[in-house]
Amino acid sequence: MAEKTCQICGCELKPKAIVRYPLVPAEIIEEAGIQRSKTVRLCPDCSEELQRWYESRISNITYDTALKRFKGKSPPEMVREYEAAYRRFARYKKEQKRVA
Fold first, then answer.
1. CA of residue 85 relative to chain centroid, distance
2. Taking the CA of residue 17 as centre, how many other CA atoms within 13 Å lie in the half-sphere pointing to its CB?
3. Coil, strand or helix at 82
4. What's the longest Cα–Cα distance across the chain?
5. DSSP H or E run through 39
6. What is the C-alpha separation between 29 and 79, in angstroms, rounded?
7. For residues 64 and 62, what is the distance between their CA atoms, to the nearest angstrom?
8. What tens-digit pLDDT sequence spans the chain (100 residues)?
9. Residues whose CB is less than 8 angstroms from the CB of residue 41 and which lie 6 or more positions away in sequence, other chains included
10. Least CB-packed of 4, 38, 52, 81 within 10 Å?
11. 86 and 23 Cβ atoms separated by less than 8 Å
């Protein structure tokens, strides 16, 4: 039963409709030297919403106050950024569900 359930919204679908969604994109995992990313089971709707969430909230640059300029984030920083963004998304969706 759990394999048919979206880990965000809890909807139950046919197993082939559930998406195994990596929390961190493959190219960042590879750059960070990590074997594989954690994955979650998502329905197509939550998968699309999470992708939009990532696009609007994750940046690969940061401002370095010591250097007084923008710099690219390292692969490990990006892994942490994606994992934190997923946790925020999951909390947001849980709160939305509670309010509704």
1. 6
2. 11
3. helix
4. 52
5. strand 39-42
6. 7
7. 6
8. 567 899 999 999 887 889 999 999 989 999 999 888 899 999 999 999 999 999 999 988 988 899 899 999 999 999 999 999 999 999 999 998 888 6
9. 2, 3, 5, 6, 7, 18, 19, 20, 21
10. 52
11. yes
Nearest to 73 by CA among 63, 65, 88: 63
- Count structural domains, the chain: 1
What is the distance between the alpha carbons of residues 37 and 64, in angstroms, rounded to a whole number? 27
- The burial of 64, by beta-carbon neighbours within 10 Å (0-12 exposed, 13-18 middle, 19 or more buried), is given as exposed
Query: To 10 degrees, the CA torsion angle through 38, 46, 52, 35?
Result: 10
Question: Can you read off the two tokens belonging to residue 83?
Answer: 């994992």
